Amino acid sequence: MLSQNFIGPGGAQSIAKVLQNKKYITELSLAMNGIFSEGAVSLGSALKDKKYLEVFNVKKNEIGLQGIKSMEECLNLSRAFKELNLSGNNIGDEGVGIVINALKNKKRQSLHTLSLSNNHITSKGCEMICEFIKKCKVLEELQLSNNEIDNVGADALIKVLTN
């Protein structure tokens, strides 16, 4: 865990070089480090074959859509996420679609915490999240604060959470 150290993109690139040679990575927390999309691209490349990643926290790194696209292979390959924190990265609805598509295709759902606050998610993204919630019966915590979800999205969430 190296949260809150502002390692920047260069530090993320250095960490990525180390991670490439590791077979079993189960937890990675690099929250609030200013890695931006450049660092996320390096991490995505290093993590693309890490299928045992369970806890992944890159909150408040402003990785953006480019960053989440670079992590798509990692999100798809990891067998069993338990915690995924992508809050504060401005991934938008398109980024949420990438995340949700990766998560909903897992054979065994074990995700109990999904944090997507501060990502400019609208009701469109919220509806994708609702579709995932229907399939993920073990999800205990969902964080969506400070997004752009309107009444349509809120109604969809209420409906899926009360059924």
What does this 3D model show about the protein?
The chain has 163 residues and is of the alpha/beta class. The chain has a single domain, classed as Alpha-Beta Horseshoe (Leucine-rich repeat, LRR (right-handed beta-alpha superhelix)). Helices cover 47% and strands 9% of the residues. The chain has helices spanning 8-20, 36-47, 64-70, 72-77, 92-104, 123-135, 151-162; strands at 27-29, 55-57, 83-85, 113-115, 141-143. Helix 6 (123-135) links the parallel strand 4 (113-115) and strand 5 (141-143). The longest helix is centred in the N-terminal third of the chain and has 13 residues, at 8-20. The chain is globular and about 45 Å long. The N and C termini lie far apart (37 Å).
Quick summary of this structure?
47% of the residues lie in helices and 9% in strands. The chain has 163 residues and is of the alpha/beta class. Helix 5 packs parallel to helix 6 (123-135).
Show the helix and strand layout:
Elements: H1 8-20, E1 27-29, H2 36-47, E2 55-57, H3 64-70, H4 72-77, E3 83-85, H5 92-104, E4 113-115, H6 123-135, E5 141-143, H7 151-162
Parallel strand pairs: 1-2, 2-3, 3-4, 4-5
Helix pairs in contact: 1-2, 2-3, 3-5, 5-6, 6-7
Largest sheet: 5 strands, parallel
Q: Uncertain spans, ≥5 residues at pLDDT below 50?
A: none
Q: What gyration radius follows from the Cα positions, in whole Å?
A: 15 Å
Number of strands: 5
* CATH architecture classification: Alpha-Beta Horseshoe
CATH first level: which class? Alpha Beta
Fraction of residues in H or I helices: 40-55%
Shape: globular
- Written as H for each helix and E for each strand, in order along the chain, the element string is HEHEHHEHEHEH
Class from helix and strand fractions: alpha/beta
Whole-number mean pLDDT: 94
Number of helices: 7
Which topology does CATH recognise?
A: Leucine-rich repeat, LRR (right-handed beta-alpha superhelix)
Strand residue content: 5-15%
The tally of domains stands at 1
- What is the distance, rounded to the nearest whole angstrom, between the alpha carbons of the first and last residues? 37 Å
Strand order across the largest sheet: 1-2-3-4-5
Name the CATH superfamily classification.
Answer: Ribonuclease Inhibitor
